[in-house]
Amino acid sequence: LDAARRTRKLIVMEEGVVTGGAGSGVLELLAKNNITDVQVRLFGIPDHFVEHGSIPILHRICKLTAHDFAEAARDMLDLAQPEPKIFAPIQRESLTA
């Protein structure tokens, strides 16, 4: 609560479903303590079917990567986002040639 009062900004990250998750508990705690002027950004698994895949792929699909968290923090602090990096296409040699 002290951090919320001091910074007026919170980012809550969880690998569970956002709806009814840890972020909801944080929002309830803020409301219970009449702390209403805090900007809160919740990250977690959406409350709908998510494709199956490796953990890194699922993190990207659900926007649970360090890049996503840093982007949200910069947005909340009104800081400019870095220019996107453009990568050259990867050219692979045929394994059968």
Indicate the mean pLDDT: 88
| Major sheet: arrangement of strands | 1-2
- Hey, roughly how much beta strand do the residues contain? 15-25%
Q: Which structural class matches the secondary elements?
A: alpha+beta
- Secondary-structure element string: HEHEHH
H/I helix tally = 4
Helix content: 25-40%
Rg (CA only): 18 Å
* Uncertain regions spanning at least 5 consecutive residues: none
The rough form would be described as: flat
| Cα end-to-end separation | 63 Å
Largest sheet: 2 strands, parallel
Number of E-type strands? 2
Short summary:
With 97 residues, this protein is an alpha+beta fold. Helix content is 36%, strand content 16%.
Secondary structure: elements and pairs:
Layout: H1 2-7, E1 9-17, H2 22-32, E2 39-45, H3 55-61, H4 66-76
Parallel strand pairs: 1-2
